[in-house]
Design goal:
single chain
Length: 130
């Protein structure tokens, strides 16, 4: 199963009772294992958590720390961009050249590198003097 197929399938499990905007994500870790995530809303935080963060959490829970590729999909007119928080999380676990593909249910895609997704990323090296 491709990452796009995995993200599309898991998207149906999103918990989005307030926005009804379901998002699915799938990533391939450096080991080749695939991890998925969905957005999860709640009454106190209706924006919820993001699908990308869920997939990254699943990867970390399995003991892995390196993203090789990631896909995010939503039912939107244009490929859905990753939020700022997820961009930073992706950059924490992926090299600058790793591909991030954003997709729609209609088949539109936009693929960028992590470096293009988050130019000027904050890295651990910025804290070298701390």
């Amino acid at each position: 199963m491709s990452l796009l197929e995995a993200a599309t399938k898991v998207r149906e499990n999103a918990y989005a009772p307030y926005s009804r905007f379901k998002v699915g994500a799938a990533l391939r870790a450096a080991s080749g294992a695939v991890y998925t995530g969905v957005n999860v809303e709640n009454v106190a935080y209706p924006e919820g958590t993001c699908a990308e963060a869920g997939a990254i959490a699943a990867m970390c829970a399995a003991g892995e720390r390196q993203i090789a590729e990631i896909v995010v999909i939503a039912d939107s007119p244009e490929p859905v961009p990753c939020c700022g928080g997820c961009r930073q999380k992706i950059a924490e676990f992926a090299a600058p050249e790793v591909r991030v593909t954003m997709a729609t249910l209609d088949g539109k895609t936009r693929s960028v590198t992590v470096a293009e997704l988050l130019p000027g990323v904050f890295r651990a090296a910025h804290m070298d003097r701390a």
